[in-house]
Structures are given as structure tokens and as C-alpha cells.
Design a protein that fits this description.
Residues 240-272 have a biased composition (Acidic residues). It comes from Rangifer tarandus platyrhynchus (Svalbard reindeer). Pfam families: NAP. Residues 233-272 are annotated as: Disordered. The chain is an alpha+beta fold. 54% of the residues lie in helices and 11% in strands. The chain has ten helices and four strands. It has a four-stranded antiparallel sheet.
């Protein structure tokens, strides 16, 4: 797996490098630069010096990345006892897993209604970074007995091989008869395509069998870097629909009270 903190050549530096190469590839223009106005020549020289400085900065990137990884590895080990303690506690909180994923702005977009039903049986999620953080990580999903599949554990791991390419492998989901959400998702999309309707998202569980481009697996990164460090930040987010509903009720009550006040004033005028 590529280091989480990577340092790349800034866009401006790339542009400067392009300028430098362009100048070098045109000797006729470079020789003619002596006839350029003084201000233009000074700008060209400044660009070349900036490019050299930027290259020096770029040379520091690799050792800086290594140092950051060492610090991450150190604190990852220190956090392990607390992660384990948290995992034991999360089992006691009903629907913590499904609530966290349903309320996450990115993950929720991947969930269909049946995916949410399955996630109600999710008891906990654990992320394990390998001893050498650069080599990869694994995400484990633990489930109670459920009507959808036989597995109690679904895992997906990401591994950086010797050639530097990231690959992934996962548990095969043993679906129960007639409960394969991936087949249903495919059938639903085909029907929607024929009818030219809006396509429903693929099942969340297709992620486990998708190994087409591990390096671009955004869901794995979101779970590892965003949800896993602190799932409560999403679990405890207020339900916006409920808040809107409560706000509408308050507005209705205020309108009713206002009408009552008007009726009372009208009755008083009639008595006079």
C-alpha cells in the first residue's frame, strides 16, 4: 500500500519544470534570450532558480514520508489496546454499526434498502494495519446469525506486493438460497436500464468481490482513515429528517396559537 502521507511535486513546480524543459529544448530561442528586455530575463532566471529549489524540496519528500510512517506505526501500536477495548464495548450498543454507515455521507450513498437490512446484523468492524504499515491493512466485518449469508466474518485485505502494486483479496460470501444481493442488484440495474429509469446503486456487498483496482479503492480508505478512528462522530449525528419534522411541528403549533389569539380578540370585540 502506498504511504498515507505522500509528498508530490506541487502543480506550480511541475509548470516550472515544463518551462525549464521547454527552454532547454529550444536552443535557438534560448540564444535569442540575450536580446530580451532586462525585466523578462530576470523573470526567466528567477523561474530557473525556483525550479532548482523546488527540486531540492522534492528530494526531501521520500525521507520525510519514511519518518511519518515510523511515527504512525509507533502510535498505531499504542492505540491497539484501546481499539480492542472499544470493540468489546461496541457489541453492547445495538445497531451501532448500521447507524454509523447509514449516516456517513459517502458510505450511505452506496447502501440500498436490503444492504441496510443486512447491516442490522453487523456487530462490529475492526481494521488491522500490518506490522509494516506500508505493506497494507485488513478490514473485518463481524455479523450475527442472519437470513442472508452463512458467514460470521467477512474480510477484505489490501496488500502491497514486491513490485509495488497494490492488490486486494476478500472472503467469499456464502449467500443463502435466494438472498444473493449482488445478483439482485445486477437484475435490478438491467431492468432499470431497459426502462430508462434511474439505476439503483450496486449492492454494498459487491465491494468484497471487486478487485479490479485496489489502488483506487476509496471505500476501504474511508473505513480505515475516517470511520475506524472514531465511529461515534457519525453514529451520534442527529437525524436531519427528524429535526426538520420537529421544526415543522413547532411552526404548525405557532400558527395554531396565533390563530387562537386572533379568535379570542375577535370574541372580545363582539362582546363590546
Amino acid at each position: 500500500m502506498a504511504p498515507k502521507h505522500q509528498f508530490s511535486l506541487p502543480l506550480q513546480a511541475k509548470k516550472l519544470q515544463t518551462v525549464r524543459l521547454t527552454l532547454a529544448s529550444r536552443p535557438d530561442e534560448a540564444s535569442a534570450s540575450s536580446n530580451l528586455p532586462k525585466e523578462v530575463k530576470e523573470q526567466q532566471e528567477a523561474i530557473e532558480h525556483i525550479d532548482k529549489v523546488q527540486n531540492e524540496i522534492h528530494r526531501l519528500n521520500e525521507p520525510a514520508s519514511e519518518e511519518i510512517l515510523k511515527v504512525e506505526q509507533k502510535y498505531n501500536k499504542l492505540c491497539q489496546p484501546f481499539f480492542q477495548k472499544r470493540s468489546k464495548l461496541t457489541v453492547k450498543v445495538r445497531n451501532l454499526g448500521v447507524t454509523t454507515y447509514v449516516k456517513h455521507p459517502q458510505v450511505s450513498a452506496l447502501l440500498g434498502e436490503e444492504d441496510e437490512e443486512v447491516l442490522h446484523y453487523l456487530t462490529r468492524v475492526e481494521v488491522t494495519e500490518f506490522e509494516d504499515i506500508k505493506s497494507g491493512y485488513r478490514i473485518d466485518f463481524y455479523f450475527d446469525e442472519n437470513p442472508y449469508f452463512k458467514n460470521k466474518l467477512l474480510s477484505k485485505g489490501f496488500h502491497l506486493n514486491k513490485s509495488g502494486d497494490l492488490s486486494s483479496k476478500s472472503t467469499e460470501i456464502k449467500w443463502k438460497l435466494g438472498k444473493d444481493l449482488m445478483k439482485r442488484s445486477s437484475q435490478t440495474q438491467n431492468q432499470a436500464s431497459r426502462k430508462r429509469q434511474h439505476e439503483e446503486p450496486e449492492s454494498f456487498f459487491t465491494w468484497f468481490s471487486d478487485h479490479s483496482n485496489a489502488a483506487a479503492d476509496e471505500l476501504g480508505e474511508v473505513i480505515k482513515d475516517d470511520i475506524w478512528p472514531n465511529p461515534l462522530q457519525y453514529c451520534l449525528v442527529p437525524d436531519m429528517d427528524n429535526e426538520e419534522g420537529e421544526g415543522e411541528e413547532d411552526d404548525d403549533n405557532e400558527e395554531e396559537e396565533g390563530l387562537e389569539d386572533i379568535d379570542e380578540e375577535g370574541d372580545e370585540d363582539e362582546e363590546r
